[in-house]
Structure formats: structure tokens, C-alpha cells
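Researcher: Hi, I'm a grad student and pretty new to this. My advisor asked me to get structures for two proteins we've been looking at. I'm not sure of the right format, so I'll just paste the first sequence and hope you can take it from there.
Model: That works fine. Here's the first sequence with its C-alpha cells right after it:
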Amino acid sequence: MSRKSYLFTSESVSEGHPDKVCDQISDAIVDLYLKADPQSRVALETLATTNRVVLAGEVRGPSSIEPGDLIDTARQVIQDIGYEQEGFDWRKADIDCYVHSQSADIAQGVDAAAEKDEGAGDQGIMFGYACRETESLMPAPIHYAHRILYEMSKKRHAGQLPELGPDAKSQVTLLYENGVPVRATSIVVSTQHSPEVSQARVREIVQDIVVDVLPKGWMCPQDEFYVNPTGRFVTGGPDGDTGLTGRKIIVDTYGGAAPHGGGAFSGKDPTKVDRSAAYAARYLAKNVVAANLADKCSLQLAYAIGVARPLSVYVNLYGTGRVEEDQIERALMEIMDLSPRGIRESLGLNRPIYRRTASYGHFGRTPDNDGGFSWERLDLVEPLKAALS
């Protein structure tokens, strides 16, 4: 029997968090290649520490893109985030590039041939999830954790909060009653700040944003509102902690409210089903909930490297379904081609749309006019209803 009353917590990190710096650099390089050639293959990892960035991975793309272009892209990302501090400065950081050509063994499994459709870029399992807790059909704890940091970032970039630095983390704990979130019981926000600003001022800045983001009456008690619990956060970003691509997979998805297959997204072109199939799974789950077929939906896909079709499709409606799960599984496979090629074509993924995904969540965002966040569209609602009628 599922619990009706409980506490649930999710965290988010800002664009200036060391791991997110790396995710954004990796995805900016994916965009660089896809802009030059939509069929490029990229598997790019980034490491960042005190005034040093290391790029490594495998690519297959235009020879016109040289190591210097990758280094310039990384430097531009660091500048855009706002790092000009002594220990991590976009102008002074040493950036090393160890990127080489994609393995021919991998390429032959993925490439299409005369009698073979394009295969998945790797094996693995991917999950998608949607629920009715927010308008974006995302779990409420991760939704508000992201929103707090996103609003802080917007104000910082607009010059309204010069006291704050790029690095920040949030953590939101919500009380659920009868399975529905009703208020926050505790909130933690740690944010980088200039040396001269007082902790009282930092708390005031953060509290104003949190109160504005949360629904009315949801603010936690003051003794459960923690701002910079260590008392000081001046040294931030990769100068304070080493960053790596792909270490924030729960922040990137559903905040722990749903299963995760384990594969990271950033730095990977859309032939990698770690990324594209996770987007497809969210797309399908969201449309199931939006079609009022269930209040909550989790969807799992499984793939093998070099094999085009998914090995399995599994839907879980958590007892909230108005249609049997196996019927929905059949309908989803009917209305969308879940091969790697089919996913990319359905969602228009061979475009330079990925850097924007690398901070504040890959899901729960508004679809962009240029095709960004296409997996958040609700254009399968009517086809899904028709397939089930």
C-alpha cells in the first residue's frame, strides 16, 4: 500500500556549479558540431578544477572544426556563466583538448547500411516520468528547487544581485498529504557571494526569491530555512570543487521522484539513446498524463548497441490509470517510432539545441520555436486518444 502522507526532498544546482559548468561546456561542443553537420557524432567529457579545464572524448564531424574551436567554445561558456574570479577566470584558465575520432567499432554498429537500420549508440535503460503536481507535469520538489536557482540566476545576470556569484545549490522538502504536495517543511539554499556581503543580506535576498517562487502559504518555518549553513561561501565553482560532466543526473531529470537508467545526457549527440530515448520517454509519459489517461506515469525503454528497435517498453501508472497499462504500451509503440532514427526525426534532435538543457533541468521546460525542448510538446494527446478508442 502506498503512503499518503510523507516528506520528499529534491535538490538542484545552478549553472555555476562545477559539474554544471562541465555539462554546459560539453553540450556547447555538441551544438558546435551539430550546427556544422547535423549528422555529427559527439561523446565529449569535461573536467574542471582551479583555472584548468580538460576536454576529452570521441567525435566524428567536419574537419573544419579544430581543437582550438573546442577550446574557444569552452572559454565562451565560462565567460557567459560569469566566472572572473582569481581561481577560475575565463581569460586565464588553461584549457587542454584530448578529443579524438570516434571508434570504428562503435560507428559500424550505429551506422545504417543497405539492409540495416541505424542502431542505438549504446545499450541501456531509459526512463520518462510525468505527474500532475505542477503545470509542467513535473514533480513539485524538483520543479521548485530549479525555479529558485533560475530566478537567482536571472537577477544576477540582469545586474540586480551583484552580491551573488555563479555557484549555488538548493534543496526543497515538501509535505505530501493524501499523495498531494501541500507546503514546504524545509528549504536549503547555498549561494556563492562576494567577501564583503553579510550573511544577513544573503538570507534576505534568498528569502525574497523563495517566497516569490513558492505557491502562497507554502513557505517553510524560519528555523527550517537554511541559507549558507556553513556561514560563508566565497570560493565557488571549479576553484572550490572539481567538476565533471554527467554527475548530476538526478538534478537533470526528476529529482529522485522517478527511476533513472543511470546514463548522463550532456556531451552526447542524439544517436546516443542515453539522451534521445530519455527525451522520448518523457515525451510519451507527459502526453499520457496530459491526455488524462493517468495522474502519474513512468515509462521505461531498453536498447542494445547497434539494434534499432527497443528491446522492451514498460509503462507504470502507479494505480492512477484510466486505461490498462498494456493497452497504453501498444498505443505508444503505434503512434511513435522508437528506433533511434525515429526518435531523432520525431523530435527534431539533430539540431544545436543542447547547451540550454545543461542547467535547470532537461524536463519541465517550455518548448522553443527553434525546436529546443521539443520533447515537452503535447502534440500526441489526440493521436494517443485515437489509438486507444
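Researcher: Oh nice, that was easy. Here's the second one.
Model: And its structure:
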Amino acid sequence: MPGPKPLTQEQQRKLLEQQEKQIKEAMDRIKHRIVVFSGKGGVGKTTVAVNLAYALANKGKRVGLLDADITGPNVPQMVGITEMAQAEGGRIVPHEKEGIKIVSLASIVPPGAPIIWRGPLCSKAIEQFLGEAEWGELDVLIGDLPPGTGDEVLTVTQRMAPQLAVVVTTPQEVALIDARRAVNMAKKMEIKQIGIVENMSGLICPHCGNRIDLFGTGGGKRDAARLDVRFLGEVPIDPQVRTGADMGQPTVLANPDAEVAQAFFTIASRIEEILSRPHNENRDTGR
């Protein structure tokens, strides 16, 4: 049997217009939109995104979390979601976990299935998550982006129109080089507010409680000053964060009094303050 006829240019144009309208309508119902990304992988970007989402929810915010790292979607694992996503009326129904709405490709594809997609297909999936998910009225939508500055990052920043970009780095120079690229990309995308989080900023010894600067310290703060963007804060290494993520328990929920959880709460407070200020007050040295 012959396959379906390809769409005409006019049909393609109408579909694109409809999708853009859906995305705009969805984003217009969300007060603040934040993207969390990094210049390179392995710096704890998703850990930061997840814990900031729950820290903001703890402050009474209605929060959504979009797992836009299409080929490496880890958010469901970190928050304890094991069920497959559902749809109603042709629209995606986000999972709700501890009051947060979450959409991720990991809840749609079979566990362990490789996602071998080219950039345009990944971007298409992100557009569907933004426009066809029932986000509803939210105070904050956080997009956890893939590392780097590729197609998916461009798609999310263009479609979400975020007011704040959070760039995650670690203190060592190798990570900071890529973080600078991420900051400069955010500037080119004309994101009004940009901030840096220095993750893995010292190890809290589980035996004695002392701090060990495995990767150095202060690099994120220095780069924030050099690049004229905000420094949002430092997050130390704590083995409990890894354990909690493996068990689907974000540290701000599992151990809110821990130093690392308090670091996330402090950063969340700074984010609240930033989003309430005029966008031209951009620099913050962290003092």
C-alpha cells in the first residue's frame, strides 16, 4: 500500500503556525521561565535544576520542570518517577511529584532505549513538550537543557523566551572555559538575566565534616565578575546528593537541613530576588 502523501508547503506552514501559537499560549501562562545549562557535561547541571525546582516550590511557587536533555533525560530518575507518561485529548499530561509538574522523554520511551536522533528531531520533541503539555498556570518553569550550545539549546531559548539563564560550572579552569561560552551564548540570545552557579565547590567530608577543595574554589565567582553577570552561589560536594539522586530523592527534600541543601535554598532566594528586579540590574558579585 502506498504511504501517506507528503504535506504541501502550505500545510507545513499552517502546522508550524499552529505549533508556534500553542507554545506562545502555553508560555504566556507561565510568569517566569528559567533555563539551566552548561558549556560541558559532568558538572551537575541536572542536579542543580532539580534541586532548584524543589527549593522554589518550597517557597510556595507553582513550578514546572522540563527535561530538555533529550538524549540524556535523567530527571525522572532523580525525582523517583517510574511510570510512563499519559496523554489526554492529544495533549501530554505532566507527571506531578511533590507538587512539581515534570515532562521528560524518559517517561515516554522504554527504559534503557537509546535515543539516536538528529538535532531537528530533538528540537521537534522539545517544541511538543512546550506547546502540547498541560503546564497550566505556573510561577516558574525550569528547562534543564543538554550540555553545550547546540540545536536543542537554541530551540529551548527561542521558544521559552526565558527571563533567566543559570549557567552551571565547576571551579576548575577546564569547566570554566566552556561556562564562558555558555554565558556568551546566553548574551547573544538576549536573555535578560544571567547567573553562574559554582557546583562541586569543595567536598564536605562525611567523617569529619571538614571541607576539601578538590577542584579549587572561587572560579565561578571570579568569572561572574569578569563577564558582568550575577554570581548565584556555591554548592559543595556531598555524597548524600548522589545517593539521593540514585534513590529518586532530591536533597532539598530528603535532607533540607544539610549544608548542600541550604546552598540550594540560598540560590533559590537569589533567583526570586533577581526575577523581581528590573532586568538592567544584572551584575552581582555575590557579596
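Researcher: Is there anything I should tell my advisor about the second?
Model: You could mention this: The mean pLDDT is 88.
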